[in-house]
Specification:
Distance between the termini: 55 Å
Order of helices and strands: HEEHHHHHHHHHEEHH
Shape: globular
Low-confidence stretches: 1-8
Largest sheet: 2 strands, antiparallel
Number of domains: 1
CATH topology: MetI-like fold
Oligomer: single chain
Strand order of the largest sheet: 1-2
Amino acid sequence: MKKTKQIGGSTIHVATRRWWPLFLGPVVAAFIIGFVWPFFQGIYLSLCSFKTVSNAKFVGLQNYIKAFSDASFRHAFWYTALFAVTSLVIINIAAFAVAYALTKGIRGSNLFRTVFFMPNLIGGIVLGYIWSMIFDGILSRFSTSIMVNAKFGFWGLIILVAWQQIGYMMIIYIAGLQAVPGDILEAADIDGATGWQALFRVVIPNVMPSITICVFLSLTNGFKLFDQNLALTGGQPFTIQPDGTTIKQTEMLALNIYNTFYTSSVASQGTAQAKAVVFFILVAGLSLLQLSFTRKKEVQQ
């Protein structure tokens, strides 16, 4: 005879074990179709010369050789690395300072949190054009432009990204600061620790999980920056090398890959795909190293 089904947690557990492919199948299929298959197809296309995916012709490592021999790609790499490190330091120091101040019970702290977070809600393209008008309005008084001087372009991008992301990182730091055990802070105060000693020896070690997340986001966002770069400077100003190569002084890696794929000859599309694979390996490798390093600094509460 067939056993009577029980009502309760055990019945739900049995049903879940029996029908899990029905629930998990669509998610796995979507993941494979939307990520896994395009990912491996992209790696394959980086080894091909193609106009469309259907007429790809295998050429081996030729695209990677062209990518690494491209002076504009090397310049974009070092420029992006400098930008990522500079923005990482500025964004995290400013975000932590603001978060630390707003957790001290100052009047209107909730309003300040909202105001600081709002720039993160604006799209990168819109921000790029807004700040382009602001910078050019100021620099025009000195008969120059953000697209004329590479230094102006670099610090313009830093200001734009910092203004956009500080509020977002601030929210993460506030959550970490509010999770610091109060008894530890009281013990430090009883032991006679100064404000700076309590900050560096008690607060920061206990906020390391938030620092790990914010540094990870800042680093990856810095390397992946595209829309703000496109809207603010478009890579300008340009310089011409003796061999005829055009170097865009404020062009970052993502914009360099985009320009290689869409504004160059058809033969360079495979080179652009190879650059994209190198870009992925670079960002993934640096992110994993950063996560491994900062997680070792975290303390168990």
